[in-house]
Predict the structure.
Amino acid sequence: MALAVMTVSGYALTVLWPHARDAYATLAAQDDPAVLSEIGLNSALRNGQTVIPENIEAALAAHDAGLAESFVDLAREKGVSLPDELSQRVSDAVAEENSSSHFAKRFANGLVTGNADDVGSLSGTVAGDLFVFGDIRDVVREGKHLAMGEDTDRLVLGLATAGLAVTAATYVSIGGVAPVRAGLTLVKDARKVGRLGEGLTEWAGRSARDMVDTPMLQNAVASGSVLHPGQTVSAIRAAFHAEKAGALVRLAKDVGRVSEKAGARGALDTLRIAEGPEDVARAARLAESKGGQTRAILKILGRGALLLAAGAFDLSLWVFGALLALFGLLSSIKATTERLTQSWLTHKKARRLRKQMAAAAQPALAGTLT
């Protein structure tokens, strides 16, 4: 029985050990998105060596040179070889995207429309917001909806009014809070084009709800105009409760950190998968560690790059199962050793007893013969 238990436990431990090892490493890294993403990437690449080339082809087909370049950086980091032809196509696409004509076109589009999805358009939207044109445009538009009782995007309204205050701080600090300004612009743009995750939208909406004094804002919008920015900004700021904007400003700061390391589209990718500000803060730490690889990591792992993809309880079960199998193996080895030792001692004692009986029987046998 002990040998049978030892065999079963040993086999179970052999099967469970790889899963338990990965589960323990994942649990230990759950507060470090950089290490957590490494574990997830290693698992994904181990199960499919074509993951990176396939994603590069998909990115090029979608005219997303930045994402393709991110996968090339990841391939270089992981030692995955890529065909020379594929690498050249990525280089050509990146060169085209970074050309002066393309940048100017995207800058103008971002400045006029206020929508950003790359470096050029983000530069345009940030420029528009820094000159308060973009934020006033959004506040006036959403404020008029509010004043007329129409559907109002209160999140865009709150972000735009917060942006006006941050823009003033940007000028005072000579650009010291520019990343926050860019972060607010990205969150606002992500909301406009529907790329803000549902969970993050709900959280940001709650945070923005109490930031604006609605009656005062209605009066400011009714008398304001984009053509008179000075008067309009002053009136809008009076309706804005700056002391209640701390949570959104912290979110914008983290978005700005992602944008600095992973680009505007990296920040938009983060906003699309994030369920709350904690996810964005983790993404900022990931971007600071992985830089240009961040977009590729988020594409492969999704939200699993930021936090445990599986439940901690499920991972703990693997570890517990391996420990149980190890305990069974050690216990059965102990029991087998004890039984073998006991059998050997019993056998040795029986042999010694037989020798003693034989030795005692020899004199008696000699006397009988005599």
